[in-house]
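Many introductory courses stop at the sequence. We go one step further.
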Amino acid sequence: MEEKPNERGCSRWMELSHTPYIASDRALPFQPTYEILSLFFPFFFCFFFPASFYSLSYALLSSCLDCLFLFNTGVLVERSARYDQLICS
């Protein structure tokens, strides 16, 4: 059963709710939180998302390069020790 509006054009549910409505189009009034977030969302998305992606990829790349550097250093130390043994023997 559909609820009929009263003399002010509001249904009982709208009167009982705490959400303020504008009578003309029943739109919500100015919501600063929503409007501020909607303004800054493109800014955060365009600047911070790529920055976090690049910093994460840089961290992964640098850790891989560190592993390669340490591995190559260990190989070089082992080879130089072998050469020292060959030269000294």
